From TrEMBL:
Gene3D superfamilies the UniProt entry points to: MetI-like
Topology term for the membrane: Multi-pass membrane protein
Name this protein carries in UniProt: ABC transporter permease subunit
Residues passing through the membrane, by range: 21-47, 87-107, 119-141, 153-172, 193-215, 255-277
PROSITE patterns (alphabetical): ABC_TM1
Matches recorded under InterPro entries: MetI-like, MetI-like_sf
Keyword hit for Nucleus: no
Location in or out of the cell: Cell inner membrane; Cell membrane
Family under the similarity heading: Belongs to the binding-protein-dependent transport system permease family.
Main location: membrane
Sequence ranges assigned to domain ABC transmembrane type-1 in this UniProt record: 81-272
Organism annotation: Pseudonocardia alaniniphila
Keywords associated with the record: Cell inner membrane, Cell membrane, Membrane, Transmembrane, Transmembrane helix, Transport
Length: 287
């Protein structure tokens, strides 16, 4: 009885180890240095907000949380926080209510001068706010709205409303007109077409636009500074007022205000991102 000699199987080849390219190494090192610098700056502000005195060493002489209590009670930060929430919500709601229909009309209607209108909408977004903040403030005071929350909302709508329109135009264009025609065939009027068909399809774009408007409103300084009063200033304006106080506000107090401002901005952005993410909006747009 003979045995068959089976051919010997070759051992599996080891996968070749690929070393990162020089470009990848430089990119990762640069990104790591950038993140380290940002985190270092943020960490120093947080530590400063808890320090009693800090004479330039690596660590303050003592830690305390009393600066946050003083910032809340003596600098008007509590009222500024309420004003920031009111202004942010109002600007987002009004910008979406007016910007979504305007974006739909610009996407669906061809008319002479459409490209000029789109170009003009870019100007408040790309121009520095200081170039038109003084003129807007003069107009608000001339009509009797200076120092009011209405003025704060109106001036912040100047750059944010065109932003919503420009964001919504490509989202509307990716919806086939056949969808609207089919809805009309089945008896949908303009109101039902917009609320039952278009709004669900445009929801990712609306949420993305709302997030950008909220972030921009929270960080708007020039526009709010020139029209707000003592009772209507937002957090960023209150922070600037504390820093520029000729009486000499302690640096730890301004650091506590800055940390509070950062927390409000991060919490607002994180809460908004619960409903939509930029990648989700892009995937929805390309479907």
């Amino acid at each position: 009885m003979t045995t068959l000699d089976l051919p010997a199987t070759a051992p599996p080849a080891r996968p070749r180890r690929e070393w990162p390219t020089l470009t990848a190494v430089i990119t990762w090192v640069a990104a790591g240095c950038f993140v380290a610098v940002i985190l270092g700056v943020l960490a120093s502000v947080v530590v400063q907000s808890f320090s009693t005195t800090w004479r330039g060493g690596w660590w303050p002489d003592g830690l305390t949380a009393t600066w946050y209590g003083r910032a809340w009670s003596s600098t008007g930060m509590s009222q500024a926080l309420v004003n920031t929430a009111q202004a942010g919500i109002a600007v987002v709601v009004i910008a979406l209510l007016a910007g979504v229909p305007a974006g739909y009309l610009l996407a669906r209607r061809a008319f002479p001068g459409r490209s000029v209108v789109m170009l003009l909408m870019l100007l408040p977004i790309i121009l520095p706010p200081m170039t038109y903040a003084v003129q807007l403030a003069a107009l608000m005071y001339r009509v009797g709205l200076g120092g009011s929350m209405t003025a704060v909302v109106l001036v912040n709508l100047v750059p944010t409303l065109p932003l919503v329109v420009l964001i919504m135009v490509p989202f509307v264009e990716q919806i086939s007109p056949d969808v609207e025609n089919a809805a009309r065939v089945f008896g949908a009027n303009n109101r039902r077409l917009f609320t039952r068909v278009l709004i669900p399809l445009l929801l990712p774009g609306m949420l993305a636009a709302g997030i950008l408007v909220l972030v921009r409103t929270l960080g708007a300084f020039e526009l709010t500074f020139f029209v707000s009063g003592a009772d209507t200033q937002t957090l960023v304006v209150a922070l600037f007022g504390a820093i520029s106080d000729p009486g000499g506000v302690p640096i730890s107090l301004t650091a506590a205000m800055a940390v509070t401002y950062m927390l409000v901005a991060v919490l607002g952005l994180a809460n908004s991102l619960r409903f939509v993410t930029p990648s989700q909006a892009i995937r929805q747009r390309h479907r």
